Amino acid sequence: MGATVTTANKTENTWGGGNEPMGASYGKLMMWFFIVSDALTFSGFLAAYGFSRFKFIDNWPIADEVFTHFPFMHGVEAPMYYVALMTFILIFSSVTMVLAVDAGHQMKQKKVAFYMLLTIIGGLVFVGSQAWEWKNFIKGEFGALETKGGSIIQFVNKEGERVKLEDFVVQLPEEREQLTRSKGKWFMEEKALPTFSVAEVQAAFKVHPELLVRTEKIYRGTKEDLANTKLQPGLNKNKHREVLNRAESEVMVGNAHLVVEGANLERNEYGNKLFADFFFFITGFHGFHVFSGVVINFIIFLNVLLGTYEKRRTYEMVEKVGLYWHFVDLVWVFVFTFFYLV
Amino acid sequence: MSHAHEHVSNTKRIWMVFGLLSVVTTVEVFLGIIRPDFLFMHNFISMNLLNWVFIILTLYKAYYIVWAFMHMEGEKSSLRWAVVATVIFLVLYILFILLVEADYIYEVFKNSTIKWNF
């Protein structure tokens, strides 16, 4: 209250508007309050993600084994690098944004426009990169089986290397017709059929004695864990997946009821079902923020070109949209940590 | 200080902060790839030190983004407190509740006679 009274004494205009008790204009203050509420929304999502992860801490998919792709490097397993690149792109677009705000303070129209343009390009490149990441995630690479208990089993060879379904499963001459709307009696249809049926995978597994099953279970590599011969060294140096012996593997494969390829909102070949849900939801919501940020940036960019802010004698609008843009970057810093690093 | 017309160019500081954020991100990626055992194998409040390092570095980056890029350092302290304290308090609260409960559920699953992962 003290602040309000002091300001009021200065301007003698307590109720008529025009007061700025926090030293920020109405628009800027509202942008800050919007950011607070949006930050809480993202915190809620990330906390829910943390909840599910802590709940399934022993069998959560290992990010280093899921996000291994890098453009133009086919077949090379490069965890972390691509998402690090995306992070740099977003940080850099944040820098160009703050440079635009800085140029705005000096009323340099051309400079503001140039930096805004760079920011927009950075944002578009980031959204494009995210789309590529999603494509790889949805498409999947190795394929897996889901057991009747709902857990995901993957295939490895004797050396503990992952084996793709397409590398050992042969299609049998069996009839599998996808149920579509037009063939259904009522509003009936089914999801796209996977490349192979469960029976085909089971038959192929029988004739490949060198194959073993890898479960969702994770070991941390403590001394007791390392004494366990079932562990498989993974891409993530500290976390090891459990590999069953042949007899146990056969039981597991016999238990299978679904072939899972790639990821959707119901199940994914990487492991826990919630993993894909949270990935889609949080990175999707963030990507939506980036996209709307690009749209807003573009509108402000056009206004800069038209000279709107020259006429107003202030570039505060650039500052406000800048706040939003930095917030999007801020959220990504946290998403990056909790999805890819931790 | 906070009046819009007295701004001087801050480009030097902006590039400095950019350098800082880049270095911290590089360190994070580097640690994420080599994952040193002396950090991963030691726990502090039921989380390994490597994760603590990641989280602290992330908060460090967040501080610079908010203070330098969003120019929180130039705002009045009433605005700073209104925004930052609110978020920090509510986030800590929700994290505490959810993570403690999740850990409890994990224990229940782990120690129960119900076989759920098969």
From TrEMBL, chain A:
Entry GO terms, CC: plasma membrane
Q: Name one GO molecular function term.
A: cytochrome-c oxidase activity
The record describes its membrane topology as: Multi-pass membrane protein
- The organism sits in which domain of life? Bacteria
Q: What is its main location?
A: membrane
Stored InterPro entries: Cyt_c/ubiquinol_Oxase_su3, Cyt_c_oxidase-like_su3, Cyt_c_oxidase_su3-like_sf, Cyt_c_oxidase_su3_a-hlx
Q: Where in the cell is it found?
A: Cell membrane
GO BP annotations of the record are:
aerobic electron transport chain
Cite the Heme-copper oxidase subunit III family profile domain residue spans from the record.
12-342
Q: Any coiled-coil ranges, and where? A: none
Per the UniProt record, which residue ranges are transmembrane?
Answer: 29-51, 80-100, 112-132, 278-302, 323-341
* UniProt-listed PROSITE patterns: COX3
Q: Keywords in UniProt for this one?
A: Cell membrane, Membrane, Transmembrane, Transmembrane helix
Instruction: Please verify whether the record's keywords include Repressor.
Output: no
> Known PANTHER family for this protein?
CYTOCHROME BO(3) UBIQUINOL OXIDASE SUBUNIT 3, CYTOCHROME C OXIDASE SUBUNIT III
Family, as annotated: Belongs to the cytochrome c oxidase subunit 3 family.
**What name does UniProt use for this protein?**
Cytochrome oxidase subunit III
What species was this sequence derived from?
Flavobacterium silvisoli
Automatic annotation (TrEMBL), chain B:
State the GO CC annotations: plasma membrane
Give the residue spans that cross the bilayer: 14-34, 49-69, 81-100
Pfam families, A to Z: COX4_pro
Tell me what topology the record assigns in the membrane: Multi-pass membrane protein
Q: Which domain of life is it from?
A: Bacteria
Main localization category:
membrane
Give the UniProt subcellular location, in the record's own words: Cell membrane
InterPro entries found in the cross-reference section: Cyt_c_oxidase_su4_prok
Q: Which UniProt keywords apply?
A: Cell membrane, Membrane, Transmembrane, Transmembrane helix
What is the protein name given in its UniProt record?
Cytochrome C oxidase subunit IV
Natural source organism: Flavobacterium silvisoli
